[in-house]
């Protein structure tokens, strides 16, 4: 795995795609609001390395180094 500042090259820890540029993020679980309950968001505290494609498709927060 090669690291370059805020990015790294290796396998995405979300989709598993090999040898891609990755960024450090925290996974966010989103529960949409319904008639019976309010919506919510839960941020997982452990950061992960995600590819740009996963970052653009799934909820996440940038991890501060």
Keywords:
single chain, 65 residues, mainly beta, 1 helix, 9% helix, elongated
Polypeptide structure, described:
- This protein has 65 residues and is mainly beta.
- It is built from one helix and six strands; from the N terminus they run βββββαβ.
- It has one helix spanning 52-57; strands at residues 2-4, 7-10, 20-31, 40-43, 48-51, 60-62.
- A hairpin with a 2-residue loop joins β1 and β2 (7-10).
- The mean pLDDT is 91.
Number of helices: 1
Helix/strand order: EEEEEHE
Low-pLDDT segments: none
Largest sheet: 6 strands, antiparallel
Give a brief rundown of this model.
With 65 residues, the chain is mainly beta. The protein contains one helix and six strands.
Draw up the topology in text.
Elements: E1 2-4, E2 7-10, E3 20-31, E4 40-43, E5 48-51, H1 52-57, E6 60-62
Antiparallel strand pairs: 1-2, 2-3, 3-4, 3-5, 3-6
């Amino acid at each position: 795995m090669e690291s370059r500042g805020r990015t790294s090259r290796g396998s995405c820890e979300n989709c598993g795609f090999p040898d891609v540029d990755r960024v450090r993020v925290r996974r966010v679980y989103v529960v949409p609001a319904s008639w019976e309950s309010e919506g919510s968001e839960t941020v997982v505290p452990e950061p992960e390395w995600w590819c740009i494609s996963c970052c653009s498709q799934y909820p996440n927060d940038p991890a501060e180094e």
